[in-house]
Amino acid sequence: MAALQPARGTRDLVGEDCRRHLHVVETARRIAACYGMEEWSTPVFEDTRVFSRSLGDTSDVVMKEMYSFTDRGGDSLTLRPEATAGICRALVSNGLTQSLPQKVFYTGPMFRYERPQKGRYRQFHQIDVEVLGAAEPLADAEVIACGWHVLKALGISGDVTLELNTLGDRDSREAYRAALVEYFTAHREALSADSLSRLERNPLRIVDSKDEGDRRIVAGAPTIAAHLTPAAAEFYDRLRRHLDAFKVPFVENPRIVRGLDYYGHTAFEFVTSRLGAQGTVMGGGRYEGLVEEMGGPPTPGVGWAAGVERLSMLLASAPDPVAPVAVVPVGEAAESPALALLQRLREAGISAEMAYRGNLKRRLERANRIKARAAVILGETEVARGVAQLKDLASGAQAEVPLAEVVARLR
Ligand code: ATP
Ligand code: MG
After folding, report:
1. Most buried in the list 41, 190, 238, 334, measured by CB within 10 Å?
2. Contact 221, 184 (CB under 8 A)
3. For 219-231, how does the pLDDT look when each residue is reduced to its tens digit (9 = 90+)?
4. Who contacts 105 (Cβ-Cβ below 8 Å, separation ≥6)?
5. Is this prediction's pTM over 0.90?
């Protein structure tokens, strides 16, 4: 029978791949906790409206990438393509809209129907940080500093640049929108079909286009700087001052606009040149109106999401697995005392292994193969005397140790 393969665009995480993945997630979890973020976990599938309302009907994700299906009860459900919408929905569902701010860390699998390539999958994983209910630019700075800190802790901050922009407030965007429509209309014959269709509804998206021809036009497009209201300019100034105080380096890039209609003020991406076309490892910004779409009161939010697969690929090396201790019984009479020792080691939090069978030579070979740091050899004479041979497998040094002291020696 033909061997079955994982579904297109999905991958198994086995061995080194899984260790890289967990290292990214656990590092982010630990650092987010230092920033006061509490971890939430929401369902993998949601009412389709959770995403169609929050991402907007014209977004790429909603138009082309969602895994939506009707279940046996006739409900339209969608495998989540991102985390923010579910978090905003959960804020409302759990009655937390009066307990603000909420600072949330999130991780889990996401699903998008995309053309699979390096760093782009149909099931991928994100780490995500959101602060809900804070209107101050200090929240934006804290969220960005947290992202930068995660990249530093992973040892990849040298490969990554923070690109920062502002999308201003509503009035700034209205003025900018008009300027963009005027500019792109003058160049409409050179725009891609996708961008043409956005010209009226959301010209800001054209600035984000990945199409080569569009990008040449976008290069000459006006930026928002000249259209910022004094309040929006002040918000952006304060954000940059806070980032300086947090010692987070950034460059300004007026082309960072983020795809969604709800973004305002801060928009940012952490980008790398090391992953080809999939160069954005982390992206985020400030948004408004999402919580309202879920049936809650007006609540601002700011956050980011990063692709765990892309971060894993940037790690210089996979973390080593924990080196165990090998327990090696020699002879029938040693087996039960060896099992008792194995259990004591594990209960003391020490990784310990005992081969299911084999003589002394085989067991020591296996201990080397699993990269054990030490072997505890228990022969029948040792058992009778209440001792064990403790062998350091790196140096080969061996010493006799009272059985009662083995755990302490190995800790
Ligand atoms: P891209 O421009 O690469 O399509 P995006 O703007 O769609 O990214 P976001 O929705 O902002 O991405 O998601 C945040 C992060 O999640 C991205 O920066 C990326 O690291 C990761 N990501 C997004 N889509 C995928 C995917 N299909 N496979 C792997 N990682 C992904
Ligand atoms: Mg995308």
Report:
1. 334
2. yes
3. 999 999 999 999 9
4. 28, 29, 32, 33, 37, 38, 39, 40, 127, 128, 129
5. yes
Give the least confident one: 174-178, 200-204, 322-326, 390-394.
Answer: 200-204
User: By the 8 A CB rule, do 373 and 399 touch?
Assistant: no
In the chain, domain spans: 15-169+229-314, 325-410
Mean pLDDT of 52-59: 78
User: What is the third-level CATH fold of 325-410?
Assistant: Rossmann fold (3.40.50)
Candidate from 67, 79, 278, 313 with most ligand 1 atoms within 8 A of CB, to mutate: 278
Q: Is 92 helix (H, G, I), strand (E, B) or coil?
A: helix
Q: Among all ligands shown, which has an atom nearest to the Cα of 278?
A: 1
The 10s digit of each residue's pLDDT in 142-151 is 999 999 999 9
User: How many whole angstroms separate alpha carbon 160 and alpha carbon 408?
Assistant: 43
The CATH class of 15-169+229-314 is alpha beta
Separation of alpha carbons 242 and 145, rounded Å: 10
Question: 120 CB under 6 A from ligand 1?
Answer: yes
Largest Cα–Cα separation, the chain: 93
Neighbours of 404 (CB within 10 A): 11
Same fold, 15-169+229-314 and 325-410: no
d(CA 396, CA 20): 31
CA-nearest residue for atom 24, ligand 1, is 120
Helix residue ranges, H only, 6-46: 16-34
| Cα distances (Å, whole numbers) of residue 31 to 127, 161, 176 | 12, 19, 37
